[in-house]
Design brief:
By secondary structure, the protein is an alpha+beta fold. It is 20% helix and 40% strand. It contains 11 helices and 32 strands. The chain has a 9-stranded antiparallel β-sheet, with no helix packed on it. Strands 8-13-14-11-12 form a 5-stranded mixed β-sheet, with no helix packed on it. The chain has a 4-stranded antiparallel β-sheet with strand order 3-2-5-6. The longest helix has 20 residues. The radius of gyration is 36 Å and the shape is elongated. The N terminus is likely disordered.
Length: 643
């Protein structure tokens, strides 16, 4: 019996001993008692021991105590705050720890920080760099970057109904401000401006702003200043969902993910928003003004530095940014769609024996479509911009001398289409006529200088102003076109006749007539010795009344047919043949800077037909690769294309 009692006593002693040394795991967040902002780099330790930790960028910390004893004290110490002590038992039940800021009276001193990330755009510029940190705007509900920058009295925002927002500094122009995203220039090659509504604030760490003109390092066009948008690398969440609601049926929602695996950091953000307003006194069905937006942002970064407190050192990062903005104005029949893509790869740090090296490669594409009907006409505009940019920077220190070497390569390709037509009321759209040359709308009354030809064609007043109907005038223009082609290396030596015809006559002359056909070349084939073939008596027939730029293009097209009939193996591949003729027309139009000349050039570039359109694009690629004269030599001995 005594043995049994002794066993029970020993059991209770061991039980309570195990409780007294049980592990305690504490997780909490350190905040400022006044502003409730999260405090990073707070030293947290158990008094009298070597057990401790520090708070991260989000103020969070975790502390594991393997053996706890009654009366243990946890100390919170930060240079900017009063020392705070709390019993371990009490801390285990706390979610937040609040520190009291302290004022430290000091004599004037000069402090130089080592390893602290300075402004990305500071470089060697003499101007002051203004910085707007994320903590200053992340809880204030700004819609986009432009709304935030509006709070700076020296920055002006120009906002359009479409939602497009441009920035000017100190009364300058929007095209005088260089805008960069993590050091990558974002200004459009079309007008050198940037739409700040494309930037989602959720993943922005700070804005760096230089105000003034001494910024030649960023190009001569940066007369007013520079704005650099620095994205966040570290986040204070794993998964976050946010929803905002506002007036005018506006709002947005977003889903954000972030994960850190030691020195590898990855994040992805999705955000969709929009607003809808109604015009007063507008016609039914034409009252709404709608804006919608879609943002995708993805980041992946890896730090080769062993110091986890400074992840920006020796950092390799990849980023993808996509934005889709749509705007529709029913009252004014206006529509705007803008797509923005940015893909970049950057490295900052030491590479082998090279120190302080910055490298970046970025690919950007902007695709914008605008449609507008106003009182004076109809506008359809398309902008397709593709930019490849490579930057490298290297810093050198020679005693007290700091040297910066920078090299930049930028390859930009811009396709711009601007189609303008006279306006037509939608109720009368079925009654209007189309110009046979430029496809503009023409009033059935023909009271504006337009003309209807006997063959049924209608030519608008603009095309009619340069229309050619006289045979002798056409022959003079023919000689001018021949001279242009000869200067490029295409010499037409054959004799031929030129005649203006109507649509009906052209359809009879052409064996494969098409509705949009403007000319045809005929010839008499004569066989001579050993089956050789000779072509003689060429005749070119062209529709009368074509505007001058279009007539030149058609003449060049038909002259190329003459050259091919006389100098190349026959029968020739149809796509190759028509592609060559379209290229000759394009060659002649390239010297025409008029609005009409550019319109017909763009028409050739964007032709959808497999023979005329694809053939032209294939031939253009070959000429660009070989040169025009070597291409002509290739045609002399080949019936089929190389593609």
């Amino acid at each position: 019996m005594k043995i049994k009692k002794l066993s029970i006593i020993l059991f209770y002693i061991l039980f309570w001993a195990n409780i007294s040394v049980a592990e305690i795991f504490i997780y909490a967040i350190v905040r400022d008692i006044n502003t409730h902002r999260k405090i990073r780099n707070v030293n947290i330790f158990i008094k009298g021991t070597k057990v401790g930790t520090t708070s991260d960028a989000a103020g969070r910390f975790s502390l594991k105590v393997a053996q706890s004893t009654p009366g243990q004290i946890v100390v919170f110490r930060h240079i900017g705050y009063e020392i705070y002590e709390v019993p371990l038992d009490s801390l285990a039940t706390m979610r937040y720890v609040y520190l009291q800021p302290r004022v430290i009276p000091l004599q004037p001193v000069e402090v130089e920080g080592a390893g602290i990330q300075g402004p990305e755009i500071q470089k060697d510029l003499p101007q002051h760099v203004s910085i707007i940190e994320a903590k200053d705007f992340e809880i204030r509900g700004y819609v986009d970057a432009a709304d935030l920058l509006r709070t700076d009295h020296s920055i002006q925002i120009d906002e359009q109904l479409s939602g497009k927002k441009t920035v000017s500094i100190r009364g300058g122009n929007p095209d005088e401000v260089a805008v960069m995203f993590n050091g990558i220039k974002m200004n459009s090659s079309y007008n050198n401006v940037f739409d700040f509504s494309l930037i989602d604030l959720e993943d922005v760490e700070r804005f760096e702003i230089i105000k003034g003109s001494n910024t030649a390092l960023y190009g001569s066009e940066t007369f007013s200043g520079v704005i650099n948008i620095v994205p966040k690398i570290e986040q204070d969440y794993t998964v976050r969902f946010q929803q905002r609601l506002g007036t005018y049926r506006s709002g947005n929602w977003g889903l954000h993910f972030y994960k850190r695996l030691n020195r590898l950091l990855g994040s992805y953000s999705f955000k969709r928003g929009g607003a809808e307003r109604n015009f007063r006194n507008a016609l039914p069905g034409r009252q709404k003004l709608t804006n919608t937006s879609l943002h995708h942002t993805a980041n992946l970064s890896f730090s080769f530095s062993r110091d986890t407190r400074n992840l920006r050192r020796n950092l390799l990062s990849a980023m993808y940014l996509f934005t889709d903005l749509d705007y529709e104005n029913q009252r004014d029949s206006e529509y705007l769609a803008s797509f923005n893509h940015l893909l970049s790869l950057q490295y900052a740090g030491d590479l082998l024996k090279i120190r302080n090296l910055d490298l970046s490669v970025s690919l950007r594409r902007l695709d914008e479509t605008q449609f507008l009907v106003s009182g004076s006409g109809l506008l359809e505009r398309n902008i397709d911009e593709r930019t490849l940019q490579i930057d490298t920077e290297k810093r050198f220190k020679l005693n007290r001398l700091d040297l910066l070497f920078a090299y930049q390569v930028k390859i930009a390709h811009l396709d711009f289409v601007d189609i303008r037509k006279n306006a037509v009321c939608r109720r009368h759209l079925d009654d209007v006529l189309d110009c046979h040359s430029c496809f503009s709308y023409v009033s059935p009354a023909l009271d504006d200088g337009s003309k209807r030809y006997a063959d049924g064609r209608v030519i608008c007043s603009k095309c009619q102003a340069t229309a050619v109907e006289d045979d002798n005038e056409a022959l003079a223009i023919m000689e001018e076109v021949k001279a242009q082609l000869a200067s490029a290396g295409l010499v037409i030596e054959q004799e031929f006749k030129l005649k203006f015809v109507s649509v009906q006559e052209l359809s009879k002359l052409s064996s494969n007539y098409q509705r949009d056909q403007l000319g045809v070349t005929r010839f008499r084939k004569t066989e001579i010795l050993a089956g050789l073939v000779s072509f003689q008596d060429f005749e070119i027939f062209i529709l009368s009344g074509l505007p001058l730029p279009q007539l030149k293009a058609v003449l060049a097209h038909e002259l190329m047919h003459v050259w091919q009939f006389a100098n190349t193996p026959n029968p020739q591949n149809l796509q190759l043949c028509e592609g060559n003729c379209q290229y000759a027309a394009y060659l002649v139009l390239s010297d025409d800077d008029s609005e009409e000349g550019q319109f017909f050039s763009k028409f050739i570039e964007e032709h959808k037909d497999s023979n005329y359109g694809d053939g032209f694009r294939f031939v253009s690629a070959e000429v660009k690769k070989r040169g025009f004269k070597p291409w002509l030599e290739y045609l002399k001995v080949n019936q089929n294309p190389p593609w």
